[in-house]
Request: fold
Amino acid sequence: MARPSSTPRRTRSQLEVWKFGGASLADAAGISRAVALIGGHQGPLAVVASALGGITDLLLEGAAAATSGRDADARRAAAEFLRRHRDVARALIPAGPARRRLLATIDASAREYRELCIAIGVLGHLAPRASDLLVSRGERISASIVAAALSQARRRASFVDATDFVVSDDHHGGAAPNLAATGKLARARLRPLLAAGTIGVVPGFIGGAPDGSITTLGRGGSDLTATLLARALGAKRVVCWKDVPGILTADPRLVAEARLIPQLHHREAAEVAHYGAKVLHPRALIPIAGTRITLHVRSFIHPDQPGTEVSARKSLSEYPVKALAIVRGQAIVTVAGKGMVGVHGIAARTFVAVDAERLSVSTIFQASSESSIGFTLPEGEADRAVSSLKTAFRDELASGLIDNITARRGMAVIAVVGDGMVGAPGIAARVFSALADGGINVVAIAQGSSERNISFAVTADQATEAVRRVHDAFQLSKIGGGRAPAAPRTDVVLLGFGRVGRALADQIAAANGQSMVRVVGLLDRSGYIFEPRGISRRRLSDLASRKDAGALLADLGGRAAPSAEALAVMAGHAVSRPVLVDVTSEETNDLLRAALGNGFSVVLANKKPLAGSFDSYQQLLAASANGNCQLKYEATVGAGLPIIDTYHKLAETGDRVLRVEGCVSGTLMYVVSAVSAGKPFSQAVREAVEKGYAEPDPRDDLSGRDAARKALILARLLGYRGGAPTPDDLVPRKLKHLPLDQFMTRLAEVDAEWKTRVAQEAAKGRVLRYVVAATPRGVSARLTAVPTTSPIGALQGTRNLIAFTTRRYASEPLVVSGPGAGAEVTAAGILNDIYWLAQRSGPSTALGAGHRLLGSEGGR
Ligand code: ADP
Ligand code: ASP
Ligand code: MG
Reply:
């Protein structure tokens, strides 16, 4: 690529172009984070937005459904498109004219999509031109939302439609931009804006054909929009914010050992992209190759890290090979014939015939002899290539000069890339001996079209192993000092900082370094403390002791703010996979829904949000079903015991849980079993308080309300749709409304009553227990007499026991039993949920969390 002569030479501009990928703009929290990053930038800026994560696929799937007459699926796609964008708009923009305008744009776009799908359904066919029109709305809406969110954050920003200035050819679905024409229009359109200090927000991926129709630049095309814009405006640099730390030595989903490459030359990055590393669009480097514009691929999750610099520098000369790229789903097309040897022009005619079909060849392969020509292209295009070649070589096939034209599908092409390969002897030998050692059969080897890469084709099933072997052979895991890219952290915010909160903070701190979980925020009713880099163990314990002495967070260096506002502030920062842990005992349902809407996952020890009306319960579940957020609540029943987990495992394996029954209150267990064993009721209660089992006011436990909530949570898990049961109340009526100290002193008045009852049951071989039961149709919490020898009768201390009667465990229930109360075990239950969230997608795929893993994006 020549120096961009169309860019006027002038003093070096400070302009940057920032591109946010779909994985970054996945939801409201992601967009808030992008807005916060932009807000922290000084100097002129243009922003390129991809569609929200998954939206492009959704739009294409809906259209495909419409084409094949599955109208319900198409309608569902339109509804999902509408819902996701409306939710994001509502979460980001407060009610008012700006929100109304945005919602109207979203509605219109969804309606249009729906109408287009209906039209496609009638035609039964989706032309690339119509597909581009359909899919363009993903980027347009996303850019509108980003522009509105920036304005909301008081940054001057304005939506600029890419079709106003990205001039492309008419190759719908994979159009190539015209650099000169685009440059001119882009300058005219954007310079005045930028000069006025306004941020131009541009939808990526789309352009306009000469006939005025909308085109797309191929999957992942927003990267190309960004470099095009940078070239046109003579920007200093382009930053692509991604869900990976930068360009890695290999696709991290395939090679766990993949490492961040600190710097690549434009040419090397161009090859990596061209050969299918999804991290950059195959043609993204073309506009800026040979210029002084640098491109940075940086982590959206760790914006403080430098990422990969792609520039005109050369570095890492000790690594002749720097990266591996792979394209799957390829076919090798071969034109073969003994008669071809020495015949002039067969190769040229082959590529003319392919080009006439507007197919683009990814790699040309060397034949073992001169008697064949081979090349790869996407499998789906193989038939067209073969038939076009058969037409072109009709005479040669008839005369026997060419024996055969065939396609072999199911291939993957792997490229080994690095500038240092030029002149370094033995690179190819090292590649192929590594493959041979692994028993990998190389189907074809590419001609040295560039000295910067060696490409070879293997069958798809050997591709991953091949990449790993070559990665190993060149010790690519040592590049850049061999540091593993920062694994995603899980940032915990504690709502409430009482006994359980502190025990949890301690347990998190104790596991530090390995767990990648840290506490970044604390909320109480006065305000919040937020330290995005993590609150140190020492500070946490200092805060804990000062809170014990009665202080509130707002007075301990925190800020005064309502919790909802505090959460919005935190969500706007670069928090990584944030988790809100509710360890209060308040009605927090609304706040939790807001948190889920802001991209937090939620872990509950607090039962109340799940034990209110059925409507509020369902609303909470629905909020967590949106996007990537999760709701976990193991610690609400049985503290650290795996009760909810056991339920899910049974259900997942196809069993049906018919009844859950047992003792789920540590305090009631302690009191009732002590009384059954002969202790006076008043003394048992006092001990439960002293030992820290009971709530500060033991009436909260004795009333049975807390046990009833747990029972309700279990019943709802089983499908019960009603409200809470009326529990048996162990608080003597006459003592109900007394101040706590009087209640405690007068409790002895009921000791005799209890003693009599215990003796009556004992005579029948029974003991008293407080038992809850849940089924899909009902729920109860009762003081019951059970046989002394039954599992529940034998239960002692504060232990909990839960018995699952299921289809498979019908005659003898499955029992989970163990300590079910206390701050330590409750915290352990919470931590278990947090770890589950943290490990949801494993260390290497976590880099691409929430990201589609569909097909290759190897260009047109
Ligand atoms: P964006 O959100 O900007 O569109 P992409 O999803 O297109 O980002 O690109 C990032 C993804 O590319 C990563 O999640 C990763 O799985 C994949 N990938 C493939 N090869 C590489 C590589 N060599 N380096 C980094 N990421 C890679
Ligand atoms: N949204 C488009 C895609 O998913 C373009 C992009 O993300 O760059 O391919
Ligand atoms: Mg992409």
Remarks:
- The chain has a mean pLDDT of 89.
- Residues 21, 220 surround magnesium ion (ligand 3) (CB under 6 Å).
- The first helix runs from residue 28 to 39.
- The radius of gyration is 33 Å.
